[in-house]
Amino acid sequence: MSLGQTVLQQLAWRYATKVFDATRKISADDWKTLETAMIHAPSSFGLQPWKFMVVTTQSVKDQLPEAAWGQSQPRDCSHFVVIAARKTTDPDYVQKFIETTATIQGVPVSALDGFKQAILLKTTGMKNGHLEWNSRQCYIALGFLLETAAMMGIDACPMEGIVRDKFDEFLGLSGGEYTSTVACALGYRSSQDKYASARKVRYSASDVVQYI
Length: 212
Hints:
- The protein has a single domain (3-89, 126-208), classed as NADH Oxidase, CATH 3.40.109.10.
- It contains nine helices and four strands.
- It has helices at 3-13, 28-39, 58-61, 73-76, 91-105, 113-124, 130-151, 164-171, 205-208; strands at 50-55, 79-86, 155-159, 178-187.
- The chain has a four-stranded antiparallel β-sheet, sandwiched between helices.
- α2 (28-39) packs antiparallel against α7 (130-151) and α5 (91-105) runs antiparallel to α6.
């Protein structure tokens, strides 16, 4: 089977898992791969305006359904990830990013001054739009996480059905620099999940793809 065929096979295999097998856990090695996939996700200017809150402690997971409209996935999955967006992209954060870039790439901070000014020009002109912009970046990381999980045969369920203020409380984010944006439950499907065998519903390429 070609790589392309494998990719399409796994994308057809995945679905938004509704019922997880609470007895099965993702191995440490497999989780490290998923974690690294999120970290490698692209973002505007490479700013990475996110924090990945990974919940594996069962006593914490047991509390999460009440802030997720009663859904069982946060409780029964192996790893529950909440992707939190940074509320602002202030000059101090930009400076930290520039200094980190200079260190990793082995160049003087001054060599990145033009890059820094370009970022500041963009971000200072946003006024109150930082959180909206940063939240959109979080969905790129979510996409990387979902596809990597599918390639590895690990089930996942992306979740917007969360009460963000409540999640911020549970995760210790309230009043801080980050706020819950979107979540994802990961683990292994239960044999009791009827949606696992349901045919995937997607529009045809002719309906949604337009070549110009």
